């Protein structure tokens, strides 16, 4: 716990990352993206999710994973910026408790066979999530696409979810050399920054989680937090946490816009990290 919880009568620290997902604020964009990913899982489609850093991509993936019944879905997750095609198969086979062979072709066949068994014997659908995709080389992204059935007419064997920061589109997928991947995408989700109203609701939900039901930020303070954070949840968390720490030290009952500006000026170095 931080120093200010006692000062403001809180039961928990409000602006932390590990809040249970059912207690987190859900913006309309987050709700829509979750619904579209669930559709991609059920129909075994290829979906892409992009967002600026700190805009809730990890939260969305956590919610998505938690929302899928484990008796009906098997979810595999890979996140490795240095991933090669060979290591992609190794990582997926590891998660299935299988040893990858030396040759990429053998590993691919083994993975496809295992997915078939899961589908036909266990009656579960397979969902494969490849995170931090903006950092990956074209060859690895191509290989991920090959996991889809290469025959356009037949049903896909699994759902693919490719997720990354905004540059996944800006620096990769929009260019001609990625056309083969782009043409297979069924669903494209973009998580935007929160607007002013959503920023307020987001802050309120975190305070409620902490057991604090009275407002601690003035309207002008909320304006200032939204302006300085540009509606990025991760930056909102850091700003609010530092504002409450400062207000607690100063024995202030409310955080006003002067406090927010002071904190941003003096304590928010690297605000966009």
Task: Describe the structure in your own words.
With 273 residues, this protein is α/β, with parallel strands linked by helices. The chain folds into two domains: 28-191, Rossmann fold (3-Layer(aba) Sandwich); 194-267, Helicase, Ruva Protein, domain 3 (Orthogonal Bundle), CATH 1.10.8. 48% of the residues lie in helices and 12% in strands. The chain is built from twelve helices and five strands. The chain has helices at 4-7, 28-43, 57-67, 85-95, 104-120, 138-146, 167-173, 179-182, 196-209, 219-229, 233-249, 257-267; strands spanning 46-51, 73-79, 125-131, 159-165, 187-191. Strands 2-3-4-1-5 form a five-stranded parallel β-sheet, sandwiched between helices. β3, α6 (138-146) and β4 (159-165) form a beta-alpha-beta unit. α10 packs parallel to α12. The radius of gyration is 22 Å and the shape is elongated. The model has no long low-confidence stretch (mean pLDDT 91).
Question: What topology emerges from the helices and strands here?
Answer:
Layout: H1 4-7, H2 28-43, E1 46-51, H3 57-67, E2 73-79, H4 85-95, H5 104-120, E3 125-131, H6 138-146, E4 159-165, H7 167-173, H8 179-182, E5 187-191, H9 196-209, H10 219-229, H11 233-249, H12 257-267
Parallel strand pairs: 1-4, 1-5, 2-3, 3-4
Summarize it:
With 273 residues, the chain is α/β, with parallel strands linked by helices.
What features would you highlight for this structure?
alpha/beta, 2 domains, Rossmann fold, single chain, 5-stranded parallel beta sheet, 48% helix, Helicase, Ruva Protein, domain 3, 273 residues
